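Thread: "does anyone have the structure for this chain?"

Original post by V.I.:
We have the sequence but no experimental structure in hand. Need at least a predicted one for the grant figures.
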Amino acid sequence: MNYFEYVSSSDKTFEEKAFNEVDNLVLSCLTYLDFTGIVPNKKVEVSLKTAGEIYLETYKKREIAKLGIAQKDAYKLLQLAIKSPRFKNIMLSNYRYITSLDSQFSAMTFKITKKLKFIGFEGTDELLSGWKEDAYLSFRFPVDAQEYAINYLNEVVSFLDSNIILGGHSKGGNLALVSGMYANFLIKNKIKKIYSNDGPGLRKEEFFSKKYEKIKDKYEHIIPTHSLVGTLLYNGPYHVVKTTNKNIFAHIAASWVIEGESFINAKQDKKSIQIEDKLNKYIASLSYEDQEKIVNTIFRDLEKQGIKSLNEFFNFRKLLKSIKSLKNISPDVKDILNDVVDIIVSNYL
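Reply from O.Q.:
Generated one for you, C-alpha coordinates below.
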Protein backbone atom coordinates (compact mmCIF):
# COMPACT_ATOMS: atom_id res chain seq x y z
CA MET A 1 0.00 0.00 0.00
CA ASN A 2 1.01 3.65 -0.31
CA TYR A 3 0.70 6.42 2.25
CA PHE A 4 -2.85 7.30 1.15
CA GLU A 5 -3.99 3.79 2.03
CA TYR A 6 -1.94 3.88 5.21
CA VAL A 7 -3.68 7.04 6.46
CA SER A 8 -7.11 5.69 5.44
CA SER A 9 -6.57 2.48 7.40
CA SER A 10 -4.89 3.99 10.48
CA ASP A 11 -7.45 3.60 13.27
CA LYS A 12 -5.04 3.52 16.24
CA THR A 13 -4.07 6.71 18.05
CA PHE A 14 -0.46 7.50 18.89
CA GLU A 15 -1.15 6.49 22.48
CA GLU A 16 -2.19 3.06 21.19
CA LYS A 17 0.59 2.66 18.58
CA ALA A 18 3.92 4.46 18.68
CA PHE A 19 5.08 6.96 16.07
CA ASN A 20 6.78 5.21 13.15
CA GLU A 21 8.72 5.93 9.95
CA VAL A 22 5.60 6.09 7.80
CA ASP A 23 4.03 8.68 10.11
CA ASN A 24 7.19 10.72 9.55
CA LEU A 25 6.64 10.67 5.79
CA VAL A 26 2.96 11.60 6.08
CA LEU A 27 3.66 14.64 8.27
CA SER A 28 6.70 15.65 6.22
CA CYS A 29 4.54 15.73 3.08
CA LEU A 30 1.71 17.70 4.72
CA THR A 31 4.19 20.57 5.11
CA TYR A 32 3.97 21.12 1.34
CA LEU A 33 0.60 22.83 1.89
CA ASP A 34 0.48 26.58 2.54
CA PHE A 35 -1.23 27.01 5.92
CA THR A 36 -0.67 30.78 6.08
CA GLY A 37 -3.54 32.35 8.01
CA ILE A 38 -4.82 28.92 9.04
CA VAL A 39 -2.14 27.57 11.38
CA PRO A 40 -0.82 30.30 13.74
CA ASN A 41 2.79 31.35 13.29
CA LYS A 42 3.16 31.29 17.07
CA LYS A 43 2.73 28.59 19.70
CA VAL A 44 -1.07 28.87 19.63
CA GLU A 45 -2.34 25.44 18.57
CA VAL A 46 -5.07 24.27 16.22
CA SER A 47 -6.00 20.65 15.51
CA LEU A 48 -5.10 19.09 12.19
CA LYS A 49 -8.82 18.36 11.69
CA THR A 50 -9.83 22.00 12.17
CA ALA A 51 -6.94 23.40 10.14
CA GLY A 52 -7.56 20.83 7.42
CA GLU A 53 -11.26 21.63 7.14
CA ILE A 54 -10.47 25.35 6.82
CA TYR A 55 -7.79 24.64 4.23
CA LEU A 56 -10.07 22.44 2.13
CA GLU A 57 -12.79 25.05 2.30
CA THR A 58 -10.35 27.81 1.32
CA TYR A 59 -8.51 26.00 -1.48
CA LYS A 60 -10.53 24.01 -3.99
CA LYS A 61 -9.19 21.29 -6.29
CA ARG A 62 -9.06 23.62 -9.28
CA GLU A 63 -6.59 25.85 -7.43
CA ILE A 64 -4.45 22.94 -6.26
CA ALA A 65 -4.41 21.59 -9.83
CA LYS A 66 -2.16 24.52 -10.77
CA LEU A 67 0.48 23.48 -8.22
CA GLY A 68 3.15 20.79 -8.24
CA ILE A 69 2.84 17.04 -7.68
CA ALA A 70 3.91 17.30 -4.03
CA GLN A 71 1.15 19.81 -3.25
CA LYS A 72 -1.49 17.81 -5.12
CA ASP A 73 -0.59 14.66 -3.21
CA ALA A 74 -0.48 16.57 0.08
CA TYR A 75 -3.97 17.92 -0.61
CA LYS A 76 -5.29 14.39 -1.08
CA LEU A 77 -3.39 13.29 2.02
CA LEU A 78 -5.00 16.08 4.05
CA GLN A 79 -8.47 15.02 2.94
CA LEU A 80 -7.80 11.60 4.43
CA ALA A 81 -5.90 12.75 7.53
CA ILE A 82 -8.72 14.92 8.90
CA LYS A 83 -10.91 11.79 9.05
CA SER A 84 -8.24 9.53 10.54
CA PRO A 85 -8.39 8.67 14.26
CA ARG A 86 -4.60 8.62 14.21
CA PHE A 87 -3.96 12.01 12.66
CA LYS A 88 -6.97 14.28 13.12
CA ASN A 89 -6.20 15.29 16.72
CA ILE A 90 -2.57 16.23 16.14
CA MET A 91 -2.10 19.86 17.18
CA LEU A 92 -0.42 22.26 14.74
CA SER A 93 1.46 25.46 15.51
CA ASN A 94 4.37 27.71 14.54
CA TYR A 95 3.68 27.68 10.81
CA ARG A 96 6.23 29.66 8.78
CA TYR A 97 6.54 30.31 5.06
CA ILE A 98 9.31 32.50 3.66
CA THR A 99 10.18 33.10 0.00
CA SER A 100 12.50 35.45 -1.84
CA LEU A 101 14.23 35.59 -5.22
CA ASP A 102 16.87 33.16 -3.97
CA SER A 103 15.22 31.15 -1.20
CA GLN A 104 12.17 29.17 -0.12
CA PHE A 105 11.47 27.87 3.39
CA SER A 106 8.51 26.49 5.29
CA ALA A 107 8.13 24.57 8.56
CA MET A 108 5.43 23.54 11.01
CA THR A 109 5.26 21.97 14.47
CA PHE A 110 3.06 18.90 15.08
CA LYS A 111 2.25 17.99 18.69
CA ILE A 112 1.68 14.25 18.47
CA THR A 113 1.14 13.62 22.19
CA LYS A 114 1.85 15.61 25.34
CA LYS A 115 5.38 14.21 25.34
CA LEU A 116 6.17 14.08 21.63
CA LYS A 117 6.50 16.72 18.92
CA PHE A 118 7.38 16.35 15.25
CA ILE A 119 8.89 19.32 13.48
CA GLY A 120 8.40 19.10 9.73
CA PHE A 121 10.36 21.04 7.10
CA GLU A 122 8.94 21.55 3.62
CA GLY A 123 10.81 20.29 0.60
CA THR A 124 11.21 22.30 -2.56
CA ASP A 125 7.89 23.42 -4.02
CA GLU A 126 7.29 24.53 -7.60
CA LEU A 127 8.96 27.94 -7.24
CA LEU A 128 12.17 28.37 -9.23
CA SER A 129 13.77 30.19 -6.27
CA GLY A 130 13.60 27.00 -4.20
CA TRP A 131 15.32 24.95 -6.90
CA LYS A 132 17.99 27.61 -7.25
CA GLU A 133 18.64 27.33 -3.52
CA ASP A 134 18.80 23.53 -3.84
CA ALA A 135 21.58 23.94 -6.37
CA TYR A 136 23.45 26.18 -3.92
CA LEU A 137 23.65 23.30 -1.42
CA SER A 138 26.67 21.84 -3.22
CA PHE A 139 28.89 24.91 -2.77
CA ARG A 140 27.45 27.17 -0.06
CA PHE A 141 26.79 26.64 3.63
CA PRO A 142 24.54 27.67 5.12
CA VAL A 143 22.03 28.67 2.47
CA ASP A 144 19.18 30.88 3.67
CA ALA A 145 16.75 28.00 4.20
CA GLN A 146 19.29 26.17 6.39
CA GLU A 147 19.73 29.28 8.53
CA TYR A 148 15.96 29.65 8.81
CA ALA A 149 15.66 25.98 9.84
CA ILE A 150 18.30 26.29 12.58
CA ASN A 151 16.70 29.47 13.95
CA TYR A 152 13.22 27.94 13.73
CA LEU A 153 14.20 24.87 15.74
CA ASN A 154 15.95 26.91 18.41
CA GLU A 155 12.90 29.17 18.68
CA VAL A 156 9.99 26.72 18.79
CA VAL A 157 11.36 24.02 21.12
CA SER A 158 10.71 24.99 24.71
CA PHE A 159 12.30 24.01 28.00
CA LEU A 160 9.25 21.84 28.79
CA ASP A 161 9.48 19.78 25.60
CA SER A 162 10.99 16.35 26.14
CA ASN A 163 10.94 14.33 22.90
CA ILE A 164 11.48 15.92 19.50
CA ILE A 165 11.51 14.24 16.07
CA LEU A 166 12.63 16.15 12.97
CA GLY A 167 11.73 15.28 9.41
CA GLY A 168 11.25 16.43 5.86
CA HIS A 169 10.99 15.26 2.29
CA SER A 170 13.50 16.32 -0.40
CA LYS A 171 15.23 19.56 0.67
CA GLY A 172 13.14 19.35 3.85
CA GLY A 173 15.17 16.30 4.84
CA ASN A 174 18.39 18.25 4.48
CA LEU A 175 16.91 21.07 6.60
CA ALA A 176 15.87 18.58 9.30
CA LEU A 177 19.42 17.21 9.44
CA VAL A 178 21.16 20.59 9.44
CA SER A 179 18.83 22.09 12.06
CA GLY A 180 19.52 19.10 14.32
CA MET A 181 23.27 19.42 13.80
CA TYR A 182 23.34 23.11 14.67
CA ALA A 183 20.63 23.28 17.35
CA ASN A 184 21.73 24.57 20.72
CA PHE A 185 22.96 22.03 23.25
CA LEU A 186 19.75 21.76 25.31
CA ILE A 187 17.57 21.23 22.25
CA LYS A 188 19.97 18.72 20.71
CA ASN A 189 19.53 16.51 23.77
CA LYS A 190 15.76 16.48 23.25
CA ILE A 191 16.03 15.23 19.65
CA LYS A 192 15.26 11.52 19.48
CA LYS A 193 15.21 11.01 15.72
CA ILE A 194 15.93 12.86 12.48
CA TYR A 195 14.38 11.64 9.21
CA SER A 196 15.48 12.70 5.75
CA ASN A 197 13.08 11.34 3.15
CA ASP A 198 15.14 11.33 -0.05
CA GLY A 199 16.80 14.59 0.88
CA PRO A 200 20.21 15.64 -0.50
CA GLY A 201 23.26 15.17 1.69
CA LEU A 202 25.91 17.60 2.90
CA ARG A 203 29.02 19.25 1.59
CA LYS A 204 32.26 17.46 2.47
CA GLU A 205 33.13 19.99 5.20
CA GLU A 206 29.85 19.51 7.10
CA PHE A 207 29.67 15.74 6.53
CA PHE A 208 33.08 15.17 8.14
CA SER A 209 32.43 17.63 10.97
CA LYS A 210 32.07 16.95 14.68
CA LYS A 211 28.51 18.26 14.54
CA TYR A 212 27.48 15.51 12.11
CA GLU A 213 29.41 12.91 14.07
CA LYS A 214 27.46 13.78 17.23
CA ILE A 215 24.04 13.54 15.55
CA LYS A 216 24.49 10.69 13.06
CA ASP A 217 23.23 7.91 15.36
CA LYS A 218 19.84 9.68 15.52
CA TYR A 219 19.71 10.20 11.77
CA GLU A 220 17.85 7.98 9.31
CA HIS A 221 18.22 8.71 5.62
CA ILE A 222 15.43 7.00 3.67
CA ILE A 223 15.72 6.79 -0.12
CA PRO A 224 13.66 4.98 -2.80
CA THR A 225 15.22 2.24 -4.91
CA HIS A 226 15.78 4.57 -7.88
CA SER A 227 16.89 7.62 -5.90
CA LEU A 228 18.55 10.60 -7.56
CA VAL A 229 17.93 13.52 -5.18
CA GLY A 230 18.74 11.65 -1.97
CA THR A 231 22.10 10.42 -3.22
CA LEU A 232 23.47 13.85 -4.08
CA LEU A 233 26.50 15.15 -2.15
CA TYR A 234 28.00 13.36 0.89
CA ASN A 235 25.79 10.83 2.68
CA GLY A 236 25.95 8.16 5.35
CA PRO A 237 24.18 4.77 5.14
CA TYR A 238 20.82 4.65 3.36
CA HIS A 239 17.59 2.93 4.33
CA VAL A 240 16.43 1.91 0.85
CA VAL A 241 12.71 1.35 0.29
CA LYS A 242 10.66 -0.14 -2.51
CA THR A 243 8.82 2.20 -4.88
CA THR A 244 6.28 1.72 -7.65
CA ASN A 245 7.79 4.58 -9.68
CA LYS A 246 11.08 4.41 -11.53
CA ASN A 247 13.83 6.89 -12.37
CA ILE A 248 13.49 10.46 -11.10
CA PHE A 249 9.78 9.87 -10.39
CA ALA A 250 10.66 7.53 -7.51
CA HIS A 251 11.21 10.77 -5.57
CA ILE A 252 7.42 11.09 -5.38
CA ALA A 253 6.59 9.92 -1.85
CA ALA A 254 3.19 8.51 -2.81
CA SER A 255 5.00 5.78 -4.74
CA TRP A 256 6.84 4.38 -1.71
CA VAL A 257 5.53 0.93 -0.75
CA ILE A 258 4.33 0.28 2.79
CA GLU A 259 3.49 -2.90 4.65
CA GLY A 260 1.91 -2.55 8.06
CA GLU A 261 3.70 0.30 9.82
CA SER A 262 6.95 0.15 7.83
CA PHE A 263 8.31 0.64 4.35
CA ILE A 264 9.19 -2.47 2.38
CA ASN A 265 12.97 -2.67 2.24
CA ALA A 266 14.78 -2.94 -1.08
CA LYS A 267 18.20 -2.53 -2.66
CA GLN A 268 19.43 0.59 -4.38
CA ASP A 269 19.02 0.25 -8.13
CA LYS A 270 22.20 -0.10 -10.21
CA LYS A 271 21.32 3.00 -12.24
CA SER A 272 20.91 4.99 -9.04
CA ILE A 273 24.33 3.82 -7.84
CA GLN A 274 25.92 4.67 -11.19
CA ILE A 275 24.50 8.16 -11.35
CA GLU A 276 25.35 8.77 -7.69
CA ASP A 277 28.97 7.90 -8.40
CA LYS A 278 29.25 9.80 -11.69
CA LEU A 279 27.38 12.93 -10.70
CA ASN A 280 28.99 13.34 -7.28
CA LYS A 281 32.47 12.80 -8.74
CA TYR A 282 31.71 15.35 -11.42
CA ILE A 283 30.47 17.90 -8.88
CA ALA A 284 33.51 17.26 -6.67
CA SER A 285 35.81 17.91 -9.64
CA LEU A 286 34.55 21.49 -9.91
CA SER A 287 35.60 24.29 -7.59
CA TYR A 288 32.91 25.99 -5.52
CA GLU A 289 33.50 29.12 -7.61
CA ASP A 290 32.84 27.22 -10.84
CA GLN A 291 29.72 25.60 -9.40
CA GLU A 292 28.36 28.97 -8.35
CA LYS A 293 29.10 30.44 -11.77
CA ILE A 294 27.25 27.59 -13.49
CA VAL A 295 24.20 27.73 -11.21
CA ASN A 296 23.88 31.50 -11.44
CA THR A 297 24.23 31.32 -15.22
CA ILE A 298 21.44 28.75 -15.53
CA PHE A 299 18.96 30.54 -13.30
CA ARG A 300 19.76 34.00 -14.64
CA ASP A 301 18.88 32.78 -18.12
CA LEU A 302 15.68 31.08 -16.92
CA GLU A 303 14.66 34.23 -15.04
CA LYS A 304 15.28 36.34 -18.16
CA GLN A 305 12.82 34.05 -19.94
CA GLY A 306 10.25 34.99 -17.28
CA ILE A 307 10.18 31.49 -15.81
CA LYS A 308 9.31 31.55 -12.10
CA SER A 309 7.90 28.07 -11.57
CA LEU A 310 8.76 24.53 -12.65
CA ASN A 311 5.09 24.13 -13.53
CA GLU A 312 5.93 26.16 -16.62
CA PHE A 313 7.76 23.07 -17.89
CA PHE A 314 5.53 20.24 -19.04
CA ASN A 315 7.87 17.55 -17.77
CA PHE A 316 11.36 16.75 -16.57
CA ARG A 317 12.63 16.02 -20.09
CA LYS A 318 11.60 19.47 -21.24
CA LEU A 319 13.40 21.03 -18.27
CA LEU A 320 16.64 19.22 -19.11
CA LYS A 321 16.29 20.16 -22.78
CA SER A 322 15.74 23.79 -21.82
CA ILE A 323 18.87 23.78 -19.65
CA LYS A 324 20.96 22.38 -22.51
CA SER A 325 19.63 25.04 -24.90
CA LEU A 326 20.35 28.03 -22.65
CA LYS A 327 21.80 31.05 -24.42
CA ASN A 328 24.24 33.75 -23.33
CA ILE A 329 26.57 31.35 -21.54
CA SER A 330 30.23 30.69 -22.11
CA PRO A 331 31.38 27.58 -24.02
CA ASP A 332 33.05 26.06 -20.94
CA VAL A 333 29.87 26.36 -18.87
CA LYS A 334 27.87 24.99 -21.81
CA ASP A 335 30.12 21.93 -21.96
CA ILE A 336 29.68 21.24 -18.24
CA LEU A 337 25.90 21.57 -18.50
CA ASN A 338 25.81 19.17 -21.42
CA ASP A 339 27.89 16.64 -19.46
CA VAL A 340 25.63 16.82 -16.38
CA VAL A 341 22.42 16.52 -18.38
CA ASP A 342 23.87 13.64 -20.41
CA ILE A 343 24.74 11.77 -17.19
CA ILE A 344 21.14 12.11 -15.97
CA VAL A 345 19.55 11.27 -19.32
CA SER A 346 21.77 8.27 -20.09
CA ASN A 347 21.22 6.74 -16.66
CA TYR A 348 17.60 7.65 -15.98
CA LEU A 349 15.59 8.71 -18.99
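V.I.: this helps a lot. The beta strands are 46-47, 91-99, 104-113, 116-121, 163-169, 191-197, 219-224, 239-241, 258-259, 262-263.
O.Q.: and The longest strand covers residues 104-113.
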